[in-house]
Amino acid sequence: MPPNNIGRGGREYLPGQGATVQIRLLILGFLFLSSVIGIAATSHAASSPAVPIAPVIERFFLQPVDAIEPGTELKFTASGTPRAKAALSIDGVIEQIPMHEEPPGTYEAAYTVRRQDIFTPTTGITVALEVAGQLVQATLAQTLQVDSPAPAIKHATPRDGETIRTNPVLISATFEEANGVGIDARTVKILLAGKDITRDAAITAHFFSYRAELQAGTYTVDASAQDVTGRLLRQIWSFNVASAAIPASTTLPLQISSPAANAQIGTGTVDIRGNTAPEAKLEVKVQAIAAIAGFVGLRQQIYTQTLKADSNGNFVFSFQPHVTVAGTRYEVTINASKSEMSRDIKLVLFQQK
Predict the structure, then answer these.
(1) pLDDT, block means (10 residues), the chain with 353 residues
(2) Residue 322: what pLDDT?
(3) Is domain 149-248 annotated with CATH 3.30.1780.10?
(4) Which tens digit of pLDDT belongs to each residue from 256-274?
(5) DSSP-derived secondary structure for 191-233
(6) Fold of the CATH domain 57-139
(7) Cβ atoms 351, 321 nearer than 8 A
(8) Spelled out in words, what is the top-level CATH class assigned to the domain 252-353?
(9) Do 252-353 and 149-248 have the same topology in CATH?
(10) How many whole angstroms separate alpha carbon 268 and alpha carbon 322?
């Protein structure tokens, strides 16, 4: 009996043809399933967000300047990933200065130094680039060269080599700014004959003073401090305190009774009082030195006068401050002369803040 080759639906198949049909169906099913999986995978990949790439900073530099001082414009340039948000920061000075991009990938910013700004060779300056929430920073590798001249310790009292015949003895000196760079008062140290007298002295950013009863002998003053950029300055001088055996008549007496050395004054009339030899001739000069940002001490003579002490040696004169800039220093110089003897004295005053 011939084999039954009748399939479903009454269709007749040749021998072996049914297996072939089954294989074909299996292949078609596999291809269909593969295409579905492929489409799903493609759809999933298309819907997954791309991982943002962090920006890159290639260069960061400061255009050279002669000195970092009030009024100096600092120009910074950075290059890196284009179309980023860029900002510049200077430690202790200013944060997040926006940087302008021109051309693409090059960012620039400028900053003008203010009087109150403190720059040191180690001041940190950074640039930051941000793209799609990804942030990268770079620190300026250049060393900041603070080329401003250092402040100085001046107008030492008693003067170097001077002999003092009265007690108590006033020891003082002033701290003179240079291009707006002043003294850090916390770093001042005063030695008298090797003894640390810092705690007993009156100290400000403009001067120091110390008053004490001293025995006869030679004394050395060693004054040191650091300016606000960290540079060290030092001044050493010596004076003598005479014994009572030395007659006072060998020198012309001259002293200022008021105001005190290194006192602060207002904008009104200033009266200077003192004492010297009776009927002595006095020549007086007053100079104002104003520390203005961008200028190296604006010096101006505001008073000059010749006068004579009264029969008791007393004298008084007045001057009006013309430069009302806070911190202005006034140097009052007095020369007294009589009978071929003469003596000079200097008083330093400061304009109130």
Answers:
(1) 50 52 56 52 51 83 78 90 94 92 92 85 87 90 62 88 86 78 86 94 88 92 86 92 62 85 86 92 89 53 92 91 76 90 87 75
(2) 73
(3) no
(4) 888 888 888 888 899 999 9
(5) EETTEE-GGGSEE-SSEEEEEE---SEEEEEEEEEEETTS-EE
(6) Immunoglobulin-like (2.60.40)
(7) yes
(8) mainly beta
(9) yes
(10) 10
Q: How far apart are the first and last CA of the chain?
A: 129
Give the pair of three-digit tokens for residue 189: 């140290």
Question: Which amino acid makes up residue 333?
Answer: T
Cα separations (Å) of 164 from 40, 158, 196, 242?
102, 8, 21, 6
pTM greater than 0.70 (yes/no) = no
Residue labelled with tokens 């260069």: 59
The predicted structure's pLDDT at residue 324: 67
Tokens, residue 314: 């007393």
Q: By the 8 A CB rule, do 190 and 211 touch? A: no
List, for residues 54-85, the tens digit of each pLDDT value.
889 988 988 877 677 788 899 999 999 999 99
Prior bond of 103 cis (ω within 30°): yes
Domain spans in the chain, listed from the N-terminal domain onward:
57-139, 149-248, 252-353
Distance CA 191, CA 202 (A): 14
Q: Across 180-324, where does the E strand assignment appear?
A: 183-192, 195-196, 202-203, 207-212, 217-227, 232-241, 254-258, 264-265, 270-276, 281-290, 298-308, 314-319
Token readout for 123 is 């001041």
Q: Are 178 and 149 in contact (CB under 8 A)?
A: yes
- 308 Ramachandran zone, left/alpha/beta (phi>0; psi -120 to 50): beta
